[in-house]
Amino acid sequence: MKTVERETARKLRAQGRSVKELARLLKVSPSSISLWVRDIELTEDQQEELRRRGNIAATASIAARGVVRRRQFQDEGRSAARERNLLHVAGCMLFWAEGSRERNKVDFVNSDPAMVSFFLRFLRTCFDVPDSKMRITCNLFADHAERQRKIEEFWLNVTGLPRVCLRKSTVNRYSKYSKKRRRNKLPYGTCRITVYDTRIVQGIYGAIQEYADFDREEWLM
């Protein structure tokens, strides 16, 4: 019987330590710790604190695994960049300039139909993204409201996507002053293309870093 370890375990358990923590601290098996402290009842506050710490540890573990996975996807992107495919180069650079910096999705917004069409060709050709994974959102201004349906059809024709890919359009309201400035500008608003795929967006991030010869750790986080 490890008397010293047993008494230490009981004392620390009464202070609210977890069985795993005691096993690690005293270098004793969890089963032995459980046997030694099974008659010690923790207060509700102590139990809640253990649950909280357990949740924090679990969250940290999940987050760490996510970083490892995203780094693997970036490495895949770096490898693809070394092939120097011109469409891949152009698409990645376009996303670097015009895309958002989301961690788990591709999000690209622009008002230029040719640019939107090109970016979709990049996704379809370089990543085999099917239409079913594409989401399109029209961003409109107040003076577009009467033409909303027509504008949505315009972007669907530009992208070649079915209406099922269309999400609810957003309408930006503005003051009379800004309305005067906005009139006749961006006649079709802007179009947002979204693809929910961590592998693709992190692959693009990895390729951008490979092409431009830099490292940006925050794109993993």
Overview of the molecule:
There is one protein chain. By secondary structure, the protein is α+β, with helices and mostly antiparallel strands. The two termini are 48 Å apart. The protein is elongated, with a radius of gyration of 27 Å. Helix 7 (148-159) links the parallel strand 2 (134-141) and strand 3. The protein has 2 domains: 3-64, no CATH class; 65-220, no CATH class. The model has no long low-confidence stretch (mean pLDDT 89). It has helices spanning 3-14, 19-26, 30-37, 44-81, 86-98, 113-127, 148-159, 176-182, 198-212, and strands at residues 106-110, 134-141, 170-172, 190-195. 58% of the residues lie in helices and 10% in strands. A 4-stranded mixed beta sheet has the order 1-4-2-3.
Layout: helices, strands, pairs:
Elements: H1 3-14, H2 19-26, H3 30-37, H4 44-81, H5 86-98, E1 106-110, H6 113-127, E2 134-141, H7 148-159, E3 170-172, H8 176-182, E4 190-195, H9 198-212
Helix pairs in contact: 2-3, 4-9, 5-6, 5-9
Please outline what is shown here:
This protein is 58% helix and 10% strand. It is built from nine helices and four strands. Helix 2 (19-26) packs across helix 3, helix 4 (44-81) crosses helix 9 (198-212) and helix 5 (86-98) crosses helix 9.
Main pleated-sheet profile? 4 strands, mixed
H-E order = HHHHHEHEHEHEH
- Approximate helicity band: 55-70%
Shape call: elongated
Given the helix and strand composition, which structural class is it? alpha+beta
State the strand order across the main sheet: 1-4-2-3
Please state the average pLDDT score. Answer: 89
Count of folded domains: 2
Residue fraction in strands: 5-15%
Number of strands: 4
Number of helices: 9
Ranges where pLDDT stays below 50 over 5 or more residues in a row are: none
- Cα(first) to Cα(last) distance is 48 Å
Q: What is the rounded Rg?
A: 27 Å
